[in-house]
């Protein structure tokens, strides 16, 4: 791999884990480019003033009018409200509609949120795969492994992804419980595709 400052990094094995950019890394053979797309998510942060604490003692998750919404109280007094899921390519604009829908749905669950200061609005990009499940393990090209496509659950799945990838790096294969997440499930094994296209 080459770095921005012109340096070169060499390794016997490389794990491609570039999030939503995993399909855009230069130098990956075309037939092996992971089928990862960006899925936009908008999220809000509110602050619970001391006089309202404790405001929520646990996470609240619900489906309101068909949309998933969650409110997560943090120990530092923040309340995170998330998250939209939008198929809009690389767009990361925070929109009035996104903020409105999150506040509307969160308000339906916990009306008191309208009293709280709104301290941050943000949009990020999740790495989605065609079935929105992770792509884990050998890519089909010797020395190139994938750990991407975690969509909405990449933080939650961090420990198990670490364990699975450690296993893959040491043994060259996937543990039984992770075999369903092989990148090869999306058609021919990448190496076979490479040979056909050669
Ligand atoms: C609004 C929102 C809310 C979410 N909420 C949750 C949640 O509650 N629970 C949960 O489990 N998940 C959640 N997710 C999803 C979670 O953030 C992702 O699944 C997770 O971040 C994916 O991890 P990753 O390491 O694969 O990719 P990323 O976290 O995107 O990390 C990839 C890294 O690779 C770097 N990179 C990319 N290209 C290059 C390059 N060419 N050279 C060097 N570095 C590069 C990037 O800078 C980045 O640091 C949420 C996502 C969003 C947007």
Which characteristics define this entry?
single chain; 198 residues; alpha+beta; D-Amino Acid Oxidase, Chain A, domain 2; 2 domains; three-stranded mixed sheet; 26% strand; disordered C terminus; binds flavin-adenine dinucleotide
Q: What this model shows, in words?
A:
- The chain is of the alpha+beta class.
- The chain folds into 2 domains: 91 residues, D-Amino Acid Oxidase, Chain A, domain 2, CATH 3.30.9; 59 residues, no CATH class.
- The protein has a 5-stranded antiparallel sheet with strand order 3-4-5-2-6, with helices on one face. Strands 1-8-7 form a 3-stranded mixed sheet, covered by helices on one side.
- The longest helix is centred in the middle third of the chain and has 14 residues.
- The chain is elongated and about 55 Å long.
- The C terminus is likely disordered.
- The chain binds flavin-adenine dinucleotide (FAD).
- The site of flavin-adenine dinucleotide has 21 residues, from strand 2 and strand 6.
Topology:
Elements: E1 14-16, E2 37-47, E3 60-64, E4 67-73, E5 78-82, H1 96-109, E6 118-128, E7 135-138, E8 144-148, H2 158-171, H3 190-197
Parallel strand pairs: 1-8
Antiparallel strand pairs: 2-5, 2-6, 3-4, 4-5, 7-8
This protein binds flavin-adenine dinucleotide (FAD).
């Amino acid at each position: 791999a080459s770095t921005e400052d012109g340096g070169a990094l060499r390794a016997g094995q490389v794990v491609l884990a570039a999030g939503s950019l995993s399909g855009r890394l230069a130098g990956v053979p075309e037939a092996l480019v992971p089928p990862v797309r960006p899925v936009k998510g908008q999220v809000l942060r509110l602050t619970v003033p001391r006089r309202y604490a404790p405001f929520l003692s646990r996470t609240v998750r619900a489906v309101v009018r068909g949309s998933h919404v969650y409110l997560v109280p943090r120990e530092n007094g923040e309340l995170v409200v998330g998250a939209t899921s939008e198929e809009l390519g690389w767009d990361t604009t925070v929109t009035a509609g996104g903020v409105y829908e999150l506040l509307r749905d969160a308000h339906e669950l916990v009306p008191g949120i309208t009293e709280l200061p709104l301290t941050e609005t943000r949009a990020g990009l999740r790495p989605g795969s065609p079935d929105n499940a992770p792509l884990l393990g050998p890519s089909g090209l010797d020395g190139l492994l994938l750990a991407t496509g975690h969509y909405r659950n990449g933080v939650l799945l961090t420990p198990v992804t670490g364990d699975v990838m450690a296993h893959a790096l040491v043994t060259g294969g996937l543990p039984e419980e992770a075999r369903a997440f092989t990148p090869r499930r999306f058609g021919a094994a990448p190496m076979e595709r490479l040979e056909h296209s050669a």
